[in-house]
Every structure is written in C-alpha cells, then in structure tokens.
Amino acid sequence: MLFNSYVFILFFSPVVICVYFFLNKLKWYRAAIFFLFFISLFFYGYWNPIYLPLILISILINYFIGASFNHLFAINWLNRKFLLLVGIIFNVALLAYFKYSNFFMSNLNYFLNNNFQLLKIILPLGISFFTFTQIAFLIDAYQGRVKEYNLINYGLFVTFFPHLLAGPIIHHTEMMPQFSDTANKAINYKNLVIGLMVFSIGLFKKSCIADTLAEWVNNDYMRYEYLSTFEAWFLSFCYTFQLYFDFSGYTDMAIGCSLMLNIKLPENFNSPYQALNIQDFWRRWHMTLSRWLRDYIYIPLGGNRAGEIAIHCNLIVTFLIGGFWHGAGWTYVIWGLLHGMAISIHRLWKKMNIQLPKIIAWMITFLFVNFAWIFFRAESLSQAFTILNKMFQPIKVELPSSIKELSYTDIIPDLMMSYKEFFLLFSFFMFICFTTKNSIALKSAYTGTLRWNVFISVTLVLGILSLTRVTTFIYFQF
C-alpha cells in the first residue's frame, strides 16, 4: 500500500487512528498493540501477501536470538558471541539471496564466460530496511541495551507501517518505550494536526514535485545517447531534485503518520542540499542510515581509533557497504566509492585548516552530490559515463535535440523557452531547499492559527488532487 494513494489517505489511515485510540480508551492496551501489529502486516501484504511468511519467519528468528541475550537466558560469553554471529549471518544471507544473488551470478557469467541461469526472484518490499533494523536490534540486545522482550511488541517494532518500507531506520530502545507510555495512549490533537501537516507536506513533495520531475527524468534517460550538453545538465539537476523530494516526501509522510499515533520517528532529513561539505551532507541526508553505518560498520571497523591510513580505509569501506546496500549493481558500488573518497578527501582538507568562502564550499558540495547521483540513477556504468561525457563535452553551438526539427523561425523562441524553464525550475527548487522551513522547523513553529490550518489544507488538497500520477517511491526498489 502506498502513502500517496486514495485508499491509504481516505480509508486506511483514518480507520487505524480511530480503532487504535478507541481500543486504548477502553484500556485494552494489549489489543491496541496487537491491532497495530496486525494492521502493519496487512499494510505490508496489501500488494503481494506471498512475502508475509518471510518477514514473520525473520521476526521470529531474530526475536528468539535477541531474547537469548537476556539475563533470563544465562549463557556464557562465547555462546553469546556465536549467537550474535549466527543472527547477523542469517540476516545478511536473507538479504543476499533476494537482493544480490542474480548480481553475483551475472558477474560470474561475465568473468568466467559461464551461462548460469538467473533466478526468478521478486525483491520483497522493505527487505533492506527491516534487515538493517533487525541487525541493529541483535547488536543492541547483545550489548545489553534492550530492556524489554515481548514477541508481539517486537513484531510491531519491525513492522510498524509508517517506517516499514523505506525507513527511517529505527532502534528498539527509541521506539518501544513510546508504545508503553500511558500519555501516548490517548489521542493528542496537537500531534494529530502537526502529524497531518507533516504528512501533507510530504504528499505535496511527492505528488506535485517529484512525480512531475519523474516524467522528464524517465523520458531523458530513455534517450540518453541523444542528449545535448544542455539537456544532460538539465537531466542531472532534475533527478537531483526528484530524488530529494521523493525520499524526503516519503519520510515526511512516515513521520507524520506515526506522529498522529503519538509515536515520534527519528528525523531523517535536515535540508541536505544546504550542506557546505560532504560530511555535513551526510549528517543531513538519510540521517538514520548514516547513524546505522557509523554505529554498526565504521566504529566496529575501528572508527577514528586506528591510524590515519586505517581511518581513511574505514571511511571508504563504510560507504562502499552503504552504496551496495542501496542496490545490486556496479553503479551503486561506484556511487558509494565516490562518497567514501569524498569523505576521505574532506578529512585531509580539514587537517590543512583551509577555509573556503561559503558559496564556493556549497557549490563544490552540491555539484559533487549532483554528479554522483548520476551513477545512483543510471541503469549501467555505460549509461552513467555517457551522460557525464555529454555534460562535459566541448560546448557546441547546438540546439537541444527536442527542437532540432523546428523551422528557423521557431528556433529562437523555443530555445529561449527551454533555457527559461531550466533556470526557473532550478531557481524554484533551490528556493524551496534554501529559504523555506523544512518539516523539522515547521513542527516546532506550529501555533495552530488560521494561517497554519489554511497551509495544511492547501498542501493536503493539492497533494490529493495530484494523485492521478501515482507512482511508487524511489527507495522502494532498495
């Protein structure tokens, strides 16, 4: 089920809110938790129930391994470590089979000149996210940070529908106390309205902006070999903003849905295109993934405790894993490698203590992120390098290919309109990213005045009216 669908907005979400708080009002607290768990499974299986057994088996195995670390299950240190290893291997193997088996087989076919038959596998929705969530749970349980063990509660922690399919990536200790907090069991009208506001902002980002940009991006990627220099730059910027408004829109909707149920998910975006360096970018973009990679990859590798060379290796390996987590393809590996190298270079730059003017620092960061996104979107390395080559080929006095067939009298007006559209759109999106308050700031600034309520109503109505172009979210493929 999609957040940006009539069935979710007009039926699913209102029913869930009403039933959940009604059960809590009757003080049927366990029934309310079970209802949320059940409805989250329904949400997950709405499109394809075939993978419901998969996520349930994954939940059971991870829960019982995690519970084994509890003091009630007294086991020695060696067995605890062995169990942790088994749990991590199980989760990685599950992810590897469904997401990476065909990637490895196709590469074996290429390098060894074999002809292994590829598997007919449909990637289960959200598998990357619920796998990382459960690995974090196992490590936290092993380290004694998990204090409460209940199978239904754990099932809800993994499947809670606002975050299940594309994050944010959550921790057991930051979520489950909220479900047991008595104050959260009664409807909170302020949370309800603020949650609706954040959801509406996300819906507007997705349906009005990201889906509009998607039409241009998909169109130009299909004819990438014929792009002019101008069109290649236009395409790269369009995808940069499409991805931002698509994923941040999803995250806003997830956080908004959850807040309406009095549950606060961790923030995931904080105006990342305002970053003045690549490290700052990753503190703002997909913040929960950055946190996960830091806590469970970078620090265990040695983090900043090792020598300088080892630190740079740790940074690059961490981002390589982060890139490969996003998708089974060399384009994602290159994307992760680029960001790892950029973080490493930034560390060296900081040691030199050189300060750039803010506008120059921002421009370098934004353009690097924009170039790297080309590998993130491209279907092959060949396609990515072709587009980059188009962007940096010697500038020719040539028209965008879409208007080459026009008569001489039509050329100048249409060419000017193309450039006008480019600069107007770029300016509009930069205006939103740089001058308007993000959802984090808007939540804090909400006062409940008429102006705020009009703003919520307008964004919600505009978002709903644009649902004729419903598309899935980009991060669903990961």
Helix content: over 70%
> What pattern of helices and strands is seen along the backbone?
HHHHHHHHHHHHHHHHHHH
Q: Give the termini distance in whole angstroms.
A: 16 Å
Total tally of structural domains: 2
Q: Output the number of helix runs.
A: 19
Structural category is: mainly alpha
Mean pLDDT over the full residue set: 86
Number of strands: 0
Question: What does the largest sheet look like?
Answer: none
Put the structure in a nutshell.
71% of the residues lie in helices and 0% in strands.
Key features of this structure:
478 residues; mainly alpha; 2 domains; 19 helices; 71% helix; globular
Structure characterization notes:
- By secondary structure, the protein is an all-alpha fold.
- 71% of the residues lie in helices and 0% in strands.
- Helix 3 runs parallel beside helix 5 and helix 10 packs across helix 15.
- The chain is globular and about 70 Å long.
Topology (elements, then pairings):
Elements: H1 6-25, H2 29-45, H3 52-68, H4 77-112, H5 127-142, H6 151-159, H7 161-164, H8 172-180, H9 189-222, H10 229-260, H11 278-284, H12 287-301, H13 308-326, H14 330-351, H15 358-377, H16 381-392, H17 408-435, H18 439-445, H19 450-465
Helix pairs in contact: 1-2, 2-6, 3-4, 3-5, 3-6, 4-5, 9-10, 9-19, 10-15, 10-16, 12-13, 13-14, 14-15, 15-16
